[in-house]
Specification:
- This protein is an alpha/beta fold and about 270 residues long.
- The chain has one domain: P-loop containing nucleotide triphosphate hydrolases (Rossmann fold), CATH 3.40.50.
- It has twelve helices and eight strands.
- It has an eight-stranded mixed sheet with strand order 3-4-2-5-1-6-7-8, with helices on both faces.
- Helix 1 crosses helix 12.
- The protein binds adenosine-5'-triphosphate and magnesium ion.
- Adenosine-5'-triphosphate binds next to helix 1, strand 7 and helix 10.
Length: about 270
């Protein structure tokens, strides 16, 4: 059974998408079968692995609204062991439509719960992958709720900046609410420090306050702030393709190893 990890932080621009793309690619290179789900209408994870949004057939929107099967929406990327369910701007309208569809299907044979849509769909393909990573949008609304319902755990990227812990309590409360109401087994996979600038003491202060708060949940790997990590997506490339011998590749491969280790390396890979 694949492990479903939601990459969540309602704060914008903390490195969710960069981490989804490059952690997925790294797990793939390390021999794990990976499915990345782009759950953000911005579709940055989709373009970031080199998929042209103009050529998308079915996207996550069609899957959530039952217009396409999930199998039909899964696209292989050029990266080893990495497939994706892409997102397109139409996902922005999913919220209202899911509410409407739930109302329409009520009392019929079709089981349609707007919060459980992603879970119900991923369940059908879960055993084909070792890891399923969900790139969440910067909000805690219905799409993220779907991710929290579907996931086994959450990975929280936190940017190394002065206001890093701002909003974290709200995020923790949301995770705890999800545990109580919709997903009692939801776990915290880990906390990832991102965009650490060298030559600032500020970064070090932030690291120690975050470690104090999250303790051993914080990964040893810290993602440095690197121009190459910001440039890669505009070429439709992961950092492993764009700068294979660079620091960004090294960091995300190290993170992938930590993730695999925390999940018990003895676990057999599928297929
Ligand atoms: N380690 C890094 N070094 C340099 N730039 C980075 C790094 N990580 C991310 N960035 C850049 O910072 C910006 C925000 O990153 P990213 O899109 O991954 O964050 P996000 O949390 O997904 O944002 P959003 O909330 O909008 O979805 C992007 O322009 C990205 O290229
Ligand atoms: Mg993003």
């Amino acid at each position: 059974m694949g492990k479903i990890i939601a990459i969540v932080n309602q704060k914008g621009g903390v490195g969710k998408t960069t981490t989804s793309i490059n952690l997925s690619a790294s797990l793939g290179v390390l021999g794990k079968k990976v499915l990345m789900v782009d759950l953000d209408p911005q579709g940055n994870a989709t373009t970031g692995v080199g998929i042209d949004k103009r050529n998308i057939g079915s996207s996550v929107y069609e899957v959530l609204t039952m217009k396409s099967s999930i199998e039909n929406a899964i696209v292989r990327t050029k990266n080893v062991n990495l497939s994706i369910i892409p997102a397109y701007l139409n996902l922005a309208g999913a919220n209202m439509e899911l509410i409407e569809l739930e109302r329409r299907y009520k009392g019929t044979e079709t089981n349609f719960n707007r919060i459980m849509r992603l879970k119900d769909e991923l369940y059908k393909v879960k055993d084909k992958y070792d890891y399923i990573l969900i790139d969440c949008p910067p909000s805690l609304e219905l799409l993220t709720t779907n991710a929290l319902a579907a996931a086994d755990s959450v990975l929280i990227p936190v940017q190394c900046e002065y206001y890093a812990l701002e909003g974290i309590m709200q995020l923790i409360n949301t995770i705890m609410l999800a545990q109580r109401k919709i997903n009692p087994n939801l776990d915290i996979e880990g906390v990832l420090l991102t965009m650490l600038s060298v030559n600032t003491n500020l970064g070090l202060e932030v690291i120690s306050s975050i470690k104090e708060f999250f303790k051993e949940r914080v990964y040893d790997t810290i993602i440095p702030r690197l121009i190459k990590l910001a440039e890669a997506p505009s070429h439709g490339k992961t950092i492993l393709e764009y700068d294979p011998r660079g620091k960004g590749t090294k960091a995300y491969l190290n993170l992938a190893k930590e993730v695999i280790e925390r999940n018990g390396s003895k676990e057999e890979s599928v297929g």
